[in-house]
Amino acid sequence: MRKGERTGWLRVAVAVLVLGLAAWAANHPTAQTSTLAQAERLVDWGRLKQARSLLQTATNDAGNQSNAPLLAYLGHIEARFGNLQAARALTDKALKLDQACASCHLYRFEALARHAETLSQFRALLKLHAIKKQLQKAEQLDPHMGDVQWGWIRFDLAVPASLGGGSGDALKHAAVLSRIDPVDGHLARASIFTSQGKSQEALAEYRAAAQEYPNDPQALFALGKALYQQGDYSAAAGLLDRAWKLDPASAFYGAYHAADLVRLGQSQQAQAVLQTAQQQHPDSRLGDFLTAQALADTGQNFAWAKQLLARYLAVPPEPEQATAADARKLLASLSQSGS
Hints:
The protein is mostly helical. The protein has helices at 8-27, 35-44, 48-60, 68-80, 84-97, 102-116, 121-126, 128-141, 146-158, 167-180, 182-195, 199-212, 217-229, 233-246, 251-263, 267-280, 286-298, 302-313, 324-337.
């Protein structure tokens, strides 16, 4: 991930090559990497629809129908889409195939926990022990899996201390996570502080991650996004630009970078970022929505904002991003403005 600086024509040539290879790899997921690794990368990039399609195709193959980690990860993605019945069925099948699969227990925990959130408090409490047991088993099988610590943190923040959760335990798991992945450790502490309303402490963790790992796009983006959300667009600009250039395949990085450029009055540069994003991931269009939102907020080019929203609505949105209803509401407000 961390490469030395390059200058002149060589730096330009390498940048072009990286962009080309990233686009090629996204469309050839089995080249050089496993299907599961590619699906995980797609999820990190905010491209869950593509990850879901990749895994659905893979698990339909006769050679993968007994592949417990693939089935469990597809269950994880289905849970992110809100398809909890499928998530529970897939993770249950995965565990029947392999009880020693740590990730299968982790994603079974997630499926059960998300289902519990749809129940009454009393019924959810009755299921708490079984839910926690899956996380304990995952950690027992693989104590070095960072995602298990993230699972504990989410559990701790959702469950009161009297029932085995609480922010104190969450911070302990963040400390464990720091030993596995220092960047994730900072981001975990930031999320805990955010849940406590401690915005300055959270920002300090984001800063520490970006300063300690200046070539890690996740660390740079996390700080850039936090500054963007606080309205400090100038401070966010360099961070978002560098994160996007380090990893242009991410739908998140380009989206926030383009929106930030608009808020700084640099619409032409934003258009160039969105054009690259369209080539990299045509079905993941968060940048269109965030840029339209930035145009609306700053009173710029409502016609372009409407075009972007129409493009955003042309495909189903990614889960956990702006919904079609959000886009239609913004479009209606632009139309009512008369501009």
